[in-house]
Fold this protein.
Amino acid sequence: MRLSAVVGLGTVFLATLAMAQGGKDQRRSGYQDMSPALQRMQDDDTANPAMLYVQAGEALWKQKAGASNKACVDCHDAGSMKGVAARYPAIPSGADKPVDLEGRINLCRTGQQKAAPFDAESEELLDLAAYVARQSRGMPIAPADDPRLASFRAHGEQLFKERQGQLNLSCANCHDDNAGKKLGGATIPQAHPTGYPIYRLEWQALGSLKRRLRNCLIGLRAEPYDYSSPEYVDLELYLMDRARGMTIDAPAVRP
Amino acid sequence: MMQPLPTRRAFVAGSLLVTVLPFVSAGATPDAMTAAIRDVVGEAQIRPGRVTLDIPPLVENGNAVPVTIRVESPMTEADHVRAIHVFNEKNPQPHVFNAWLGPRNGKAVVATRIKLADAQKVVAVAETSRGEFWSASADVIVTIAACTEDVK
Amino acid sequence: MANVLINAPKTVRKGETIELKALILHPMETGFRPGANGQLIPRNIIEQFTATWNGVEIFRMKMSPAVAANPYVSFFAVAKESGTIRFQWTGDRNFSAEGSVMVTVT
């Protein structure tokens, strides 16, 4: 299968190229829709602004925190998170609901470190998410094989296809029906979450998939869900399944 | 000439667009840019050439536009690029940056990322140790991003 | 602690021209942008970036609000002797940050 070939190639560029040449897979990542100038900004780790956050995340990984005075590295060796970002959201052991990568980091924070959880979109949470996600770069998106996820994913799909907001549009109206066309000056992407957290030029900062989903909801003139809402995790589950096999290019640069 | 913003077409096509401009309007103008350049070079003649201004002609987001300036120069004690100055036509202010170099740089090449609030002309001027000024310019079209968010 | 990312080759041959790249986390707030309350967000930019090689200045840059957030700068230098290349950023609100790399010249 082409997937295994893609994994072997290692770099995002070669992988996406291989996928494009494969001919059958019509899916395109946001990377492929970007100008060469922005692709170069992403590809060069010494120029990709998201690497500032990865570097900070690497430092945080080793920093003791909370009542248990433990650092992430006390349980998880540096660099041991390979593949994790490729399979989340997932249901942590002992839980019955899925959490996304940021949610999982906060579970360690509260459960293991006995520290207060990081706020949604806080720099620390994004730093750690970027550090973890970077370790899956080049790997295919491989959602967790857990039948309990099916109902949450189905809810995510329903949300994706449901019209909402004052504009009465669904996610699918743009990202399935009109992907590749222009919205104003921008190319509508197929909405594959290959690169999160992303350094979005519009934000001039790193941000999570949740923040991106909120942007879309605001664009629809819908009331965005609260950051802690399970709707985001369900949408993320659906999007990751929809992008199954595509190559992780986190932390990505996007316009 | 100022461009009307947003255009009606952009508005209709993208009622999804929340047109938050990165800057409040107007300030710098082509005249302001010319004046800013004169502030730096004085009355000296500015000649086109020797400078390559590498900037994408069409950018998806004006918040970070990669730009590289290369100047042909032996970069010796006797003949080198002393400074590279970059200006723009329409951002609130005409100055972008000034970089000072010398023979120690080996190559007169500087790269950075700049903000462009609107489609406009960008000008790079190189100042040599012999007191010459060389320049290059480029027109950049900046498209308005879809699905921006409210300022936090 | 400022978050800076510097890239330079660790070992170079004497006389070689090398590329130096520096990134720093900074909002480069222009002072022209209205915030959520409609008031302009006050300007907060890096104004000056300098690089020295063993204490000798090799590059200097004056930035305006038109330099993008989280400024990236790349330039070149001739490797003359082993030592420390130090990068310094200063700006509004007494902002000051430093970073350095060691380069071995053989």
